[in-house]
Design the sequence.
């Protein structure tokens, strides 16, 4: 009975993955089409990839997208790190729970509401929509991701390490740079890569806060798709999917390495205590 249930569960899982990835692979498949439409595959060709790289506007938007992703991820990682440290060092559990709940609001709120809120806020303060508004909004929704990546690593850290460093005469900066940051480094890297991934893939929030003279790939792809089928967009979407996949794989290996390293350290501590 158990094996039968497991079989149906695996079949359901396969069905869900097919449902999610079939449209993506269909899009990627036709990016290699020699023709101009997604209804008839007339032969293999790199023509649409060549057209994509020859489109100077699209390449400029690609550069803008990567600049926004890297800059927002870097700043969000820095802010999120100190946010995680602040939550970790909070002594009262009730206050810590409140801070965690406030941190998670942007994670569970619909992107449309977040985007509209940013648009209203930037309009009220008089900030011109464009590069600055996009970077600020991406920083804002990336910070909770970084906090959620870094905080578990801090919670795994033995508080005795900090106490031992202070007993040896280390000041706050030395404790942070030589004890806390090296231990939390895998979580920091994971948060950075996840922030980049979220920034590259975001559409809803970015759509609200972009100006007339600035755009990102997600918004540009949406705008061009409304005007008609252009298989160079398929090519760009294929490259973006591949890049996102690479970032997720990097995140997986960092998390896996962190988990194995943590188990080795805990095992070593048990041997020492015995």
Sequence:
């Amino acid at each position: 009975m158990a094996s039968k249930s497991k079989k149906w569960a695996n079949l359901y899982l396969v069905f869900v993955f097919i449902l999610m990835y079939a449209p993506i692979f269909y899009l990627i498949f036709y990016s290699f089409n020699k023709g101009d439409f997604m209804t008839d595959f007339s032969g293999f060709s790199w023509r649409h990839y060549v057209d994509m790289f020859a489109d100077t506007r699209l390449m400029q938007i690609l550069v803008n997208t990567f600049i926004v992703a890297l800059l927002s991820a870097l700043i969000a990682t820095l802010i999120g790190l100190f946010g995680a440290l602040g939550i970790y060092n909070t002594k009262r559990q009730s206050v810590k729970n409140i801070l965690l709940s406030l941190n998670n609001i942007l994670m569970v709120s619909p992107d449309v509401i977040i985007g509209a809120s940013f648009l209203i806020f930037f309009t009220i303060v008089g900030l011109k929509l464009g590069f600055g508004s996009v970077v600020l909004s991406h920083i804002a929704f990336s910070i909770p991701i970084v906090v959620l990546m870094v905080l578990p690593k801090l919670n795994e850290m033995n508080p005795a390490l900090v106490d031992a460093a202070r007993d040896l005469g280390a000041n706050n900066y030395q404790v942070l740079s030589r004890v806390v940051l090296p231990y939390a480094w895998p979580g920091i890297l994971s948060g950075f890569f996840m922030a980049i991934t979220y920034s590259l893939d975001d559409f809803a929030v970015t759509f609200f806060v972009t100006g007339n003279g600035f755009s990102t790939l997600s918004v540009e792809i949406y705008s061009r798709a409304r005007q008609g089928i252009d298989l160079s967009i398929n090519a760009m979407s294929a490259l973006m999917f591949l890049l996102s996949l690479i970032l997720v794989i990097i995140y997986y290996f960092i998390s896996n390495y962190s988990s194995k390293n943590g188990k080795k350290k805990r095992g070593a501590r048990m041997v020492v205590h015995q």
Q: What stands out?
A: The CA atoms of residues 176 and 182 lie 9 Å apart. The chain is about 80% helix and 0% strand.
